[in-house]
Amino acid sequence: MHEWAIAEGVVSAVSKLAEERGKEVMRVKIVVGELSGYEIEVLDTALKSLSIDTPLRKARFEIVVEPTQFKCNFCGFEWGMPEVRGQLAEIFGSENAETPMHYIPELAVAFLKCPKCGSPDFTITAGRGVRVAEVELA
Fold it and tell me: How many CB atoms are closer than 10 A to CB 27?
């Protein structure tokens, strides 16, 4: 249900922008991090439902998933989720490999290691959170 709270925040912020400029919103591009765990269909439904009586009522919502990227603080190697699916499968089983990460993304730092050097010291550089990337007004 976090998707509805995110949608409410997006609709509120973009509505305020549109009202300040006296315009209607035609398109909103939203970037959702892969590691955020948000359900895109639920977010899309929430955005459309909450926009009915707002300046976003005619808006087309474009939701883009940003792939997760990691960077090793020891060797500098950069990688994404495809490179660590094997590690997750070993820990959680192949059928449930990404399920814990979906519900608790912070588990990444507890379970993953750099695929190149094996260091557990890494940074998540992309693929977290949600942001409004573009707003088209008319």
Answer: 15
DSSP annotation string for the chain: -HHHHHHHHHHHHHHHHHHHHT--EEEEEEEEEGGG---HHHHHHHHHHHTTTSTTTTPEEEEEEEPPEEEETTT--EEEHHHHHHHHHHHH-GGGTTHHHHH-GGGHHHH---TTT--S-EEEEES-SEEEEEEEE-
Q: Where are the domains of the chain?
A: 2-28+39-64+131-137, 69-126
Tokens representing 97?
Answer: 């490999």
Is a pLDDT exceeding 90 seen at residue 4? Answer: yes
CA proximity to 84, closest of 97, 66, 103: 97
Q: Cβ-count burial of 136 within 10 angstroms (0-12 exposed, 13-18 middle, 19+ buried)?
A: middle
pLDDT in tens, 71-123: 999 999 999 988 877 777 776 665 555 555 555 566 777 778 999 999 999 99
Tokens 């959702």 -> residue: 32
